[in-house]
Design goal:
about 10% strand; alpha+beta; single chain; four-stranded mixed beta sheet; about 140 residues
């Protein structure tokens, strides 16, 4: 099912890079729990979506498509779709950049957590639990 190039271009221009619905949902839940954060911290590698500076936690809210969730399965689907070379190359670059930025952040002493968009929307409280556990672990390390 081929689509007009102009329609695809218009659709892609509407894809947001910050303040997405998944980021907003997670931020609201963090705020409600009393956890304060910074948004889209440009000083850090990868410009994390949410940063809890007090505990050095960098949080990424990743969309399943652009960050390649279940990559082998998605790659097969893309091979059967329109412009497979472009999309496979793009998503592989995104995945590699994600890994590189994660390594850089960890080298700088940051804890990194990545959530898939559907996981945030399905159970934001589980995401908050993961973050609180990281804070607890970091706090316990201060005493050892």
């Amino acid at each position: 099912m081929a689509r007009e190039k102009e329609v695809v271009t218009k659709t892609m221009k509407r894809v947001k890079s910050k303040d997405t619905s998944i980021e907003v949902a997670l931020r609201k839940a963090l705020w409600k729990k009393g956890l304060r954060y910074r948004k889209n911290c440009a000083k850090l590698p990868g410009k994390p979506d949410i940063v809890i500076t007090k505990y050095k936690i960098a949080i990424f809210c990743d969309s399943e498509f652009f960050h390649g969730k279940d990559w082998e399965k998605l790659k097969l689907q893309l091979q059967r779709g329109n412009n497979p070379d472009y999309w496979i190359k793009k998503i592989e670059r995104n995945r590699q950049r994600d890994m590189d930025n994660e390594k850089k952040l960890m080298f700088l002493g940051w804890n990194v957590v990545r959530f898939w968009g559907k996981d945030i929307l399905r159970d934001v409280n589980e995401c908050i639990r993961v973050i609180e556990e990281m804070i607890f672990d970091e706090h316990m390390n201060d005493f050892s």
